[in-house]
Specification:
Actin, Chain A, domain 4; alpha+beta; 4 domains; binds adenosine monophosphate; Nucleotidyltransferase, domain 5
């Protein structure tokens, strides 16, 4: 799983635009960074949030976003929402969520959840792709260009299948997902925490229906999720439900029961409750008068202290999760340098004040909490697009990793900027006849020669049975896990002898050191190229000398030919002994090739003639 190198777009005048997409449970939105500022993209009505809702209408039409949300009451069993709760899950894992959804979900033959609309079955990937298509369409209208690439965010706790399913949904929507990014990492980026400084960040994300808290460790420009906690069914909707109860309590009991049976009226009450809540984020008290026709008029005034008393137990539940996340991360609260807010419900003043007193420091509030994740995704997208070279890519290996090969060159197995986790295996062999052990030295850096790279460790693979040089097949595997720990193993394929080493964590480099090593590699690119060429040329010459001498012993050649080959081999050997440069060695190799080529032809043609003659004699 390595990233291909980032390439620039075809048209040099237009910067490559890669979308940052927050594909949310309730709402989705896209942002883009062109220039220094990231901005969210809005539709013609000025709305940035696209409801993550799809309605499969009875006439075969499909609506997405606000249009689908508006159809929810008319077609509750045909309107699909919260599909993010099902994506990448087995039916069994999705079942607790399925029970709470207003539309039907059935198990497929492979025990995967499928949304059932009449006789049609839709996979969560397919539904998500319709949402992504709408996000893409809105974005294209906003920027006036077609867009094909995106960075898409997912919760930090999404497993590989859930991440892959999200990528598949993007592909179905015609989007190449360059990176799946953790939502908390995106949020931290949006708040200007760009990995330039090591530290620990707490990301508190309280949305409409879900709560997530994550503890991130930033080290050497790499973001690592230390822990996550949360509640997949806790959010602003629960605050609304408490206020809706207050509203309903003002109605006569009979009217209250009939409201519960009428989805249209229930929706009106819930919307009124939400607007009360939002006003209470600014005002000390808020009034409401809701005309419910023949059911009466609901009239209520709620003060902020009353609202806060009602929601306090819910807020406390979020803090319990924060405490768990901190404990799981193995750090103390005092180690947390930054607190970052995500999700619309973090605008509730009690949420902010309780979090602040719990953590002992105020959270950052300078970014719109609804937009933070999309903005962060756009920043990462811009870096991946190659437009911003001042930032390191995140969750990636900062410098290439490789092993020293014969002659002091470094063979890189994992290239810089590969996403972690990643694993690469390459085959090597011995350089000397009868060699029974090899030393494997592991290096980090962009330079060609081991002496200019940084050695991370070394180990020996011993117990190889004596064989001619080049015959043992040694598979060397570099594996970097999600925590940035590198494991190197070497295994001789014929005999199964094996050895390995582990290097951890993050290879102890600061961001400045990474930059310095990168700069050096650029400065010395030409010298390094020549030095590597010389080493490779030398190895080729040595192999030719060795191989030709062996062939001479086996082949039966006329004395004059033996003499001319010997002469060429000796000349090349002398060049090697004199440490000749790559050009002279190359000429020596060419000379030897010329001499041996005619012999090879002679040997082959005489063998063919001999074989033909034998055949004729036998027939
Ligand atoms: P999200 O899922 O991040 O889009 O958050 C949506 C939730 O944030 C909904 O429950 C909204 O009612 C809530 N929300 C949005 N703005 C405010 C506000 N100013 N005060 C309180 N809650 C808000």
């Amino acid at each position: 799983m390595t990233d291909s190198p980032v390439t620039k777009g075809d048209d040099a005048r237009e910067p490559r635009l890669v979308l940052g997409i927050d594909l949310g449970t309730t709402n989705s939105l896209a942002a883009i960074r062109a220039g220094s500022e990231a901005r969210v993209l809005r539709n013609q009505q000025g709305e940035a949030l696209i409801p993550s809702v799809v309605c499969y209408q009875p006439d075969g039409k499909t609506s997405v976003g606000s249009a689908a949300k508006a159809l929810r009451l008319e077609h509750p069993d045909r309107t699909v929402s919260s599909i993010k709760r099902l994506i990448g899950k087995s039916f069994a894992d999705a079942e607790p969520d399925v029970a709470k959804l207003p539309f039907a979900v059935v198990a497929s033959e492979r025990n995967l959840p499928r949304v059932a609309i009449g006789d049609d079955r839709h996979s969560p990937e397919e539904v998500s792709s319709l949402i992504l298509r709408e996000v893409r369409r809105t974005a294209e209208l906003a920027v006036g260009r077609s867009l094909h690439e995106a960075v898409i965010t997912v919760p930090a706790w999404f497993d590989d299948t859930e991440r892959q399913a999200t990528k598949d949904a993007a592909a179905l929507a015609g989007l190449d997902c360059l990176r799946i990014l953790n939502e908390p990492t995106a949020a931290a980026l949006a708040y200007g925490i760009d990995g330039g400084k090591d530290g620990t960040v707490l990301v508190y994300d309280l949305g409409g229906g879900t709560f997530d808290v994550s503890v991130l460790r930033i080290q050497d420009g790499v973001f690592r999720v230390l822990s996550t906690a949360g509640d997949t069914h806790l959010g602003g909707d629960d605050f609304d439900a408490l206020l809706a109860q207050r509203i309903l309590a003002t109605l006569p009991e009979r009217a209250r029961d009939s409201v519960n049976e009428d989805p249209y009226v229930l929706q009106a009450v819930n919307q009124a409750a939400e607007s009360l809540k939002i006003r209470l984020s600014e005002a000390e008290s808020a009034e409401l008068e809701l005309d419910l026709g023949d059911r009466g008029i609901a009239k209520v005034t709620v003060t902020r202290p009353e609202f806060e008393a009602a929601i306090a137990p819910l807020v406390q539940r979020t803090l319990d999760c924060v405490q768990r996340a901190i404990a799981d991360a193995g750090v103390g609260l005092d180690a947390v340098g930054d607190i970052v807010l995500v999700g619309g419900s973090t605008r509730v003043p009690l949420v902010r004040s309780r979090l602040e007193s719990f953590c002992g420091k105020p959270p950052h509030t300078h970014v719109d909490p609804d937009q933070a994740v999309a903005l962060g995704a756009a920043i990462q997208a811009d870096v991946l697009a190659g437009n911003d070279r001042s930032l390191l890519l995140l969750d990636v290996i900062p410098l290439s990793l490789g092993i020293e090969t014969l002659g002091g060159a470094v063979q890189k197995l994992i290239l810089r900027n590969s996403t972690i986790p990643t694993s690469v295996t390459e085959e090597f062999s011995t350089g000397v006849d009868g060699q029974t052990s090899v030393d494997l030295r592991i290096f980090q850096g962009e330079r060609e020669l081991a002496q200019n790279c940084r050695q991370l460790g070394n180990f020996q693979l011993a117990g190889i049975p004596p064989m001619p040089a080049g015959l043992p097949r040694i598979a060397v595997t570099f594996l970097v896990d999600a925590d940035g720990v590198l494991r190197v193993t070497a295994r001789e394929q014929r005999t199964e002898v094996q050895a390995g080493i582990q290097v951890s964590p993050s290879f102890g480099l600061t961001r400045d050191e990474v930059r310095r090593m990168m700069l050096e590699s650029l400065e010395h690119a030409q010298d390094d190229f020549l030095a590597r060429e010389a080493i490779e040329q030398r190895q080729k010459a040595e192999a030719m000398v060795r191989g030709t001498r062996q062939a001479l012993e086996l082949a039966e050649l006329p004395p004059d030919q033996i003499y001319s080959v010997h002469k060429a081999v000796k000349a090349l050997d002398r060049l090697l002994a004199d440490n000749a440069d790559a050009k002279a060695l190359n000429a020596g190799c060419e000379e030897l090739t010329k001499v041996t080529a005619t012999i090879a032809d002679d040997v082959i043609s005489s063998a063919v003639t001999k074989a033909l003659r034998e055949e004729q004699e036998n027939s």
